[in-house]
Amino acid sequence: MSRKRRTIADIIATAVGAGAPIEFVAYDGSRYGPTDAPVKVRVVNEQALSYLATSASMELGLARAYVSGALEVEGKIYDAFKVLGSVDFEPIGVAEKVRVLRDLGLKILKWNPPLPEEIGASRLAHGLRHAKNRDAAAIKHHYDVSNTFYEWVLGPSMAYTCAVYPTAESTLEEAQYEKHDLVCRKLGLQPGQRLLDIGCGWGGMVRHAAKHYGVTVVGVTLSRQQAEWGQKAVAEQGLSDVAEIRHGDYRDVVDGPFDAISSIGLTEHIGVKNYSAYFQKLHGLLRPQGRLLNHSIMRPTNTERVAYGRGFINRFVFPDGEITALGRTVTALQDNGFEPRHAENLREHYAMTLKGWCDNLDEHWDEAVQEVGLGTARVWALYMAASRLSFEKNKIQLHQVLGVKVDSTGNANVPLRPWF
Asked: Domain Polyketide synthase-like methyltransferase, which positions (predicted)?
C-alpha cells in the first residue's frame, strides 16, 4: 500500500505543533492553522523551501525566503515576530528530514546564489577582519544605501542610534535631541573646548554640540554618503567655522588633543579583539581630565561568546559586526587608561526608538521600495522589527559608559555626584 504524499501544510504542522496562532497558506493549495490567526504566512513558491533546506540556520533561511519574496507575511513584521516567538517549534529528527525530502523532492536542495542584498565575508574587500579596507566595505554596505531612504526611516534628526525618551509620550525627534544633549551634559562640554565625535554618521551630534554648547567639533565617518550629507547640513546651518565632518577612519585622526570624545554606535563595528587598541587610541587623543562617552549595543551577560556568525544580521545588515557585554567593555576601558565614572542601560529606549523607525518605514513604504528596491526595504523591516523585540525581551542591551582620563596626580575633575 503506497504511503500518502504529505502536503506542505502537513510538514509545517509537524514542526509547528498544535495550537500555534499562525495560519500558513502554501502554493500547493494546502493550509494549516486558524483562519482568524493574527498572523498569516504564505509560502509563495518552492524557492522558500529551498532556502530553508539549504541555509546554515532556520533564521537565515526564513530571512532569505522573505527578502526574496518567496515567503510573504500579512500584517506587521513585528507582530509576526511576537507570535512566532511564542511558538514552541518541534525539533525535527534525521528520519523526519529524510521523509520531508522524499515528499518534497531532492530538487529543494539546489544551490542558491546569495541575494543581491546579502553580503558575506567572501564578498567584502580582501583583508583581515576589521582591517581598514574591509571595515570600509562593511560600512559602505550598510550606510551607503540612500540618504533619502534614511531620511524617511530616521526622520529629520538623521540620528541612527538609540534615542533617550524624557517621557513615554515624547516624540522620536524629542528623544533624539535629548540623547545628543545627554551626551553633551555627561561630557561636561564648555564653550571653546574641542570635541571629537567618531562614527559621527550624518553629523547630528556634531551639529548639536557646536550649536548648543559652543564647542569646536570634528566628526569622522567611514561612510562617504553620510559625510557628504553631514557636510552639507553643517554648511546650511552656518556651522562651518566650528564643525567639520571628515570621511575617514577614526584610527587616522592625529590632530589631538581633544577635551572630550563621543563614540555613539561605533564600538559594534570595531571587533571585540580590538577593544584595547580602540581605547588606547582614544586615550591618546584626549588631554588629561578629558572625558569619553561610549554608547553601544551590548549583550546581557558576559558568559555569551562573541558570535562571528553567518546569520541574517551579519550577512544582510552589519557585516563583521560584533558585540559583547558591559563587563568586558568596562574592563577594556579600565585596562587602557580610563577611569569609569558612570554606566547606564537604555535598552527600553532603544525598543522605543526602533518602533519609531518601523513606523516611519511603514509610512513611507511605497517610496522606500521605489528608492532602494523591495528586497532592501524588506531587509530593513525584518531587522528593525527583530531588533525591537530583542531589546524588549532583554536579548540585547544599550549602554552608555562614561570614562575619564585622569591626570598625573589622579585628578579626574568631575563633580562629586552625577551632574547630568
From this structure: 149-403
Residue written as grid cell 584595547: 276
User: What is the count of structural domains for the chain?
Assistant: 2
Q: Say if CB 338 and CB 403 are below 8 A apart.
A: yes
The more confidently predicted of residues 340 and 57 is: 340
pTM of the model: 0.92
Are residue 49 and residue 149 in the same domain, yes or no?
no
pLDDT tens digit sequence for 93-111? 667 667 767 777 766 777 7
Main-chain dihedrals φ then ψ at residue 295, nearest 5 degrees? -120, 115
Considering the domain architecture, whether residues 156 and 279 belong to the same structural domain is answered as yes
DSSP 43-89: E-SHHHHHHHHHSSSHHHHHHHHHHHTSEEEES-HHHHHHHHHT--P
Find the helix or strand (DSSP H, E) in which 10 lies: helix 8-16
Answer yes or no: do 221 and 78 share one domain.
no
Residue 46 and residue 23: Cα distance in Å, rounded? 18
Measured on CA atoms in the order 381, 384, 387, 392, is the torsion positive or negative? negative
For residues 368 and 351, the answer to whether their CB atoms sit within 8 Å is: no
Residue 182 and residue 96: Cα distance in Å, rounded?
Answer: 55
Identify the three-state secondary structure at position 398: strand
Give the residue among 248, 319, 257 at the shortest CA–CA distance from 286.
257
Query: CA-CA-CA-CA torsion for 408, 414, 417, 420, nearest 10 degrees?
Result: -150
> Any idea what the CATH number is for the domain that residue 351 is in?
3.40.50.150
Per the domain annotation, does 3 fall within a domain?
Answer: no
Write out the residue range of the structural domain in which residue 52 sits. 8-109
Rounded CA separation 169/189 (Å)? 28
